[in-house]
Amino acid sequence: MMKKTVTMKKTMMKKITSLNIQTLHFQDPTFSEYMLSADEEYFEPVEDSLPTESISYTYNDNTKDAVVYLPPGYDEENRYNIVYIVGGVSTYETAYFGEPGSSRRIKNMLDNMILNGDIEPCIFVNLSFYPSHDVKFGDIDTDVLLDEFNSELREAVIPAVESTYSTYAEDTTHDGIMDSRNHRAFAGFSLGGAVAWHVLGEDVDYFSYFIPMSAGCFFDDRDDQTYFGEDLIETLSDNELDRYDFFVYACEGDDDNTKDQMEHVIDCLRYYYTYTFQFTENDMSEGNITYKLKYGAKHSSENVLDFIYSALTAIWGKYQ
């Protein structure tokens, strides 16, 4: 267990006002395409599966746990891609992989994808957005939670995880983490999806890939557009990055009650940030954002299986 004294590198002066935002209605339709789904056989357990495990880290004298998925055949002599994921509004670090040692459908799916050569081997780290299990959404101002989570992610979570497990980070200094960003993704569903949009704006120097699922974004009192577009432009500039240095794989159910919120974000990016975002169907060489729909899907964490399957196939698939 690692204990670190952390100083926040930048203070976000945004007042978050709501998760719900009004939908823009442009005449041109938002680009979308229905996504891939895993075959049912991918949810069967495999013999070479490794048990999930827990890692502890400390930030501001508060110790938290995360649940870690390791790919079949994990070997410290090798280097691995890594995905950090956050669940919905009422979940914590056990949202997707359960308690350490549990076997969930997402674990079986990842095992089969890796063993079948569909994607490069990767590590998953399931995080909690909240400071403790005693905290629920609404107990603490959202802007305070976002500030705390963002600093915790950068200064405590990534250093603890990537000094314990073998990733592409040569070390856990700022330069070491930034230099390995092409092998790091951030994903989130529902509340976690809104967090993923936020992380895109603040932490593109640490992550190359972003998978917001079934969510709009948090927004503040600057204007009625997506504030993180402005933050993203600033973060890119500060770190000598540009629009070719990140990719967003946004996922939504076509009957999900968050679809209007998601498409507000998509439309804002498409029409207000045309220099920063270039939409593409799948080819990352032709753009840096895609938007996919799951046919007939309502708001359910079960959709995360297809969302993650489709996104990982595009990001770290065998044809990339």
List the helices and strands and how they pair.
Blueprint: E1 2-4, E2 33-34, E3 53-59, E4 62-69, E5 81-86, H1 105-115, E6 122-127, H2 142-164, H3 174-179, E7 184-189, H4 191-202, E8 209-213, H5 227-238, E9 247-253, H6 259-272, E10 289-294, H7 303-316
Parallel strand pairs: 1-3, 2-10, 5-6, 5-7, 7-8, 8-9, 9-10
Antiparallel strand pairs: 3-4, 4-6
Provide structural commentary:
By secondary structure, this protein is an alpha/beta fold. The chain has a single domain, classed as Rossmann fold (3-Layer(aba) Sandwich). Helix content is 29%, strand content 18%. It contains 7 helices and 10 strands. It has a 10-stranded mixed sheet with strand order 1-3-4-6-5-7-8-9-10-2, sandwiched between helices. Helix 4 (191-202) packs parallel to helix 5. The longest helix has 23 residues, at 142-164. It is globular. The protein starts with a strand and ends with a helix. Mean pLDDT is 86; it is low at 1-29.
